[in-house]
Amino acid sequence: MIDVESALNFYRVMAYIVGVMLLVLCAAMVVKYGFDSDTMVAIVGPIHGFLYMIYLVAAINLGLIKARWSVGYLLLVLIAGTIPFLSFVLERSVTERVRRRIATAS
After folding, report:
1. What's the pTM value of the predicted model, to 2 decimals?
2. Fewer CB under 10 Å: which end of the chain, C or N?
3. Does the keyword Ion transport apply (predicted)?
């Protein structure tokens, strides 16, 4: 179960990082379209994209390999990195689900 716990911790870190970067990207989009300056989007966009790919790997590692979630739940978790605030909400759900599974396995 140590593998599951470490996969959960990595997922949680990535969920927060991707969630924050997505909010920064949304602010960059406001600057781009509201103030006609696309510099911030040009910087933040690729960073968020790269971090989102790491988030996908973390979620697949946790959900598909370690915790064995259903495909529907895994897809919801994967999409959460593209909808503002959803990664924070699902991080809580994922943490509770995995910790319950660890507790029942012990």
Report:
1. 0.91
2. C
3. no
